[in-house]
């Protein structure tokens, strides 16, 4: 489940994705197209992205509920997706734990990072060629090579 502004997105075992009004609880859309359970969802601007065990990532229009694109990927279990409007980042949640960048327009994988730590992504940010992942450690990547890994981070809650 993901929330942005007053919109809540949920994926279901029946293969549907629901768009909810978080203030009223009203169901705005039921997005149908996956044939297996939806394992992850993401919101980017006015788009919803969903990943499923049917090996597809779908991009939906949040206003109309229309499916805009379907990306078929050879991943066993899509456990995480992130979309920045141009590229889709996905994680294969099997023991291989690969992280993949996809171009939805060409349906091609641009780059793959193999590592089982990607099974546990809590948050990500994608800016240009840099990807920030929060997985228990923070790693900043640039064109495939880690720039910096932060294993200990001191956080001050009192503004210090």
UniProtKB/TrEMBL annotation:
<dbReference type="GO" id="GO:0010992">
    <property type="term" value="P:ubiquitin recycling"/>
</dbReference>
<dbReference type="InterPro" id="IPR015943">
    <property type="entry name" value="WD40/YVTN_repeat-like_dom_sf"/>
</dbReference>
<dbReference type="GO" id="GO:0043130">
    <property type="term" value="F:ubiquitin binding"/>
</dbReference>
<dbReference type="GO" id="GO:0005737">
    <property type="term" value="C:cytoplasm"/>
</dbReference>
<dbReference type="Pfam" id="PF00400">
    <property type="entry name" value="WD40"/>
</dbReference>
<dbReference type="InterPro" id="IPR020472">
    <property type="entry name" value="WD40_PAC1"/>
</dbReference>
<dbReference type="GO" id="GO:0005634">
    <property type="term" value="C:nucleus"/>
</dbReference>
<feature type="repeat" description="WD">
    <location>
        <begin position="1"/>
        <end position="30"/>
    </location>
</feature>
<feature type="repeat" description="WD">
    <location>
        <begin position="31"/>
        <end position="70"/>
    </location>
</feature>
<dbReference type="InterPro" id="IPR036322">
    <property type="entry name" value="WD40_repeat_dom_sf"/>
</dbReference>
<keyword id="KW-0677">Repeat</keyword>
<dbReference type="InterPro" id="IPR001680">
    <property type="entry name" value="WD40_rpt"/>
</dbReference>
<protein>
    <submittedName>
        <fullName>F-box/WD repeat-containing protein 7-like</fullName>
    </submittedName>
</protein>
<dbReference type="GO" id="GO:0043161">
    <property type="term" value="P:proteasome-mediated ubiquitin-dependent protein catabolic process"/>
</dbReference>
<keyword id="KW-0853">WD repeat</keyword>
């Amino acid at each position: 489940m993901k929330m942005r502004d007053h919109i809540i997105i949920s994926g279901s075992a029946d293969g549907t994705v629901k768009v909810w009004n978080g203030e009223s609880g009203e169901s705005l859309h039921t997005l149908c197209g996956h044939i297996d359970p939806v394992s992850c969802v993401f919101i980017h601007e006015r788009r919803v992205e969903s990943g499923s065990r049917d090996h597809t990532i779908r991009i939906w229009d949040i206003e109309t509920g229309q499916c805009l694109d379907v990306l078929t990927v050879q991943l066993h279990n899509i456990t995480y997706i992130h979309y920045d409007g141009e590229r889709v980042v996905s994680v294969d949640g099997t023991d291989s734990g690969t992280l993949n960048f996809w171009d939805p327009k060409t349906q091609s994988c641009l780059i793959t990072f193999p590592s089982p730590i990607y099974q546990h992504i809590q948050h990500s940010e994608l800016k240009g060629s840099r990807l920030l992942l929060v997985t228990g450690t923070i790693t900043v990547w640039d064109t495939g090579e880690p720039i910096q890994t932060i294993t200990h981070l001191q956080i001050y809650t009192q503004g210090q």
